[in-house]
Amino acid sequence: MKLIAFFCLILANATAMVQAQVQTHPRLWLTEADLPRLRAWANDSNPLYRDALKPLALRAKAEMDSGDVPRRDCGSTEYEAYPTESYAQLFAFMAQVENDAAVRADYASRARTLLMSIINIAAQGPAQEANYICPENQQSGYPPYRSPRFFTEDSNRARWHGEAFPLVVDWIYPTLTAQDKQTIRTVFLRWSQEIIERGYNHPTPIGMVNDPALLANNEQVRWSGNNYFTAHMRNLGMMAMALDPADDANNSLRNYLGNATGAWLYLFDSLINNESRGGLLPEGYEYSPQTASYAIQFLLALRSAGMDTCGSHCQMDSSGFWYQFLYAFYHSLSPAPIEEANLGPVYLPAWYGDGENYHSSDFISAFGALGAYDILTGNNNRLPSLRWAQTHMMPGGAANFMRRASNPDDFRHTILYFMLYDPTLLPAADPRPALSLHHHATGLQTIFSRTSWNNDASWFIYSLPWNQIDHQQSSANHFEWYRNGEWLTKARNGYPDIAEGIASSEFKNLLALENDKPNRDDSDWRTDLWRRGSQWNLVGSGNPLLVSSAVNEHYLYAFGDATNTYNASSENATDIVHASRSLLWLKPDTVVMLDRAQSKTANRFKRWWLQLATPASISTNRARATTAGGQQLQVTSLLPAGALLSAVNSNDSHIEQTAARNEPMRVRLRIDAPDNPQQVYFLNVLQAA
């Protein structure tokens, strides 16, 4: 009897899962139940419709009618000014939310025309030669949409716009003919197989799902935090859910969903619950918001389609990471904004990782999808905070809200802005005063602390992250300090060719320690890291260790051992015996730090670097810099005896070329241990006034 009861329970659960799956269209990101609400918002009393969504759709129609779309789309894997699938996505969304049935039908017809213009060409298969000259830019490449990597490997187009294809299919499903659906299926099947076989850092072994063996290679888990990885995960999973069983013989396309959830999402879930717990993803401030947005968009689609019953890793809030992601966002932005000429008021981020432009970015692709999930699930705990953040803390602030929402560069932004904001609700209140003044993102071992949530707060960041995948830089034991509306010191950010130069310890607030020279050509990026005495990006011997830490209203303390990051076994560079830092921020105006360094070999340099916005003046063992706002930062070197202080006020041209635009740190203070001893202690006191 117990066995019968057990099988009855299994059958009941299986039946519930089937019943939970949404059989109608739309089902990706929104459902039939959402349409009355969204159509009620689609009127001229709603500014987001009147001044953003509607005029953007009318402009897109005009560009299609003039022939710019799809004619001016070269069909490449990189940036296109007129990405056809993005226009189709906008039209397909309008086909859902417009109130006039005839207008909806016209939008659906336009979406179908554009979608099938790509699909019918892609159905010819990958091209063998890159001998096509695009009339738009006169550049050669593969024929449109037929590059062998159009939807796989490191295709930026698939990353930026890949969700458009399954969304358009789902949103205009009744408009598609039976032949359309079969052609779409043929293309989606090929693209899906290409993703699982050739997607950037795809899970291996191929075909293994929901198996702890996938997690055995920790490097593979870490690579799930890569932006291409989560984009492929989203695209693979959403294509699998777009077609109905009647149009997918033997569930051949639907079966790829098991790979998307059981391999790709399985790895990503392990990452955010372990080495990225606390809300920070590894690739940094430029790429991690994208990485997060692709993952959230997939989780939203799983939920809206009723397909999130594949385990706790398929549930958005099973781990709490996405709450921490929002908290980390608040803690990563400066207490006060500055006025930026082209954007208006912008908050300054506690940047980490590669960066081309130093300013905060619009998180709507992540927060909009996260808010849509909260609306779908009735979660009113996080939703008001998301709406407040999107209104007030994005570039331009509340004054430029509508300019962001109507940005023609990415139609997905406007769609998500429209979906996020209920025009009948009062504006949300600032959630920050209710938050803690401190946040510890334990996965990447980063601690944020501030004296208040007021504009005049002092703010301090200590970081000791692991380093193994793209876009990470030398940051183990780095610190940054903000006071009275400006940075006193932070990293000098930039975007290196690979992981050298401006990504090295020389441009962070770190030690530089001479190691064994790798057996590499002098032009190799690893040789450059060695020459600068840097921690090793990508190839370090192991993780740094946060030995102890504490933070409260009076101080922040951290003791980090970064020895492993200064050695690289693969490069036979293992001369560093010890490299650690003990740091104490006595709030708000004093920092004391003790750095310990030891090498096996004598007569190898040991240096201490501090990044500054303005040149320092040197007097014996003291250096002083005055900021643009008139603050003074004084550095007193107490150890080693006879330390050599020097102001470094110029850089080679390559460093200047790779530095981020609007980066405020331009010069440095360097402290050398005299006579290059094997072991040295650097004891420095930083005081602000």
Order of adjacent strands in the largest pleated sheet: 11-12-13-14-21-18-17-16
From the N-terminal CA to the C-terminal CA, the straight-line distance is: 78 Å
* Sheet of most strands: 8 strands, antiparallel
- What characteristic shape results from the CA principal axes? globular
Q: How does this model look, in words?
A:
The chain is an alpha+beta fold and 689 residues long. It is 35% helix and 18% strand. The protein is built from 21 helices and 21 strands. The chain has an eight-stranded antiparallel sheet. Strands 5-6-7-8-9 form a five-stranded antiparallel sheet, covered by helices on one side. A hairpin with a 3-residue loop joins strand 11 and strand 12. Helix 5 (84-97) runs antiparallel to helix 6, helix 5 (84-97) runs parallel beside helix 8 and helix 9 runs antiparallel to helix 11. The protein is globular and about 80 Å long.
Question: Can I get a quick summary?
Answer:
With 689 residues, this protein is α+β, with helices and mostly antiparallel strands.
Question: Keyphrases for this structure?
Answer:
single chain, 689 residues, alpha+beta, eight-stranded antiparallel β-sheet, five-stranded antiparallel β-sheet, disordered N terminus
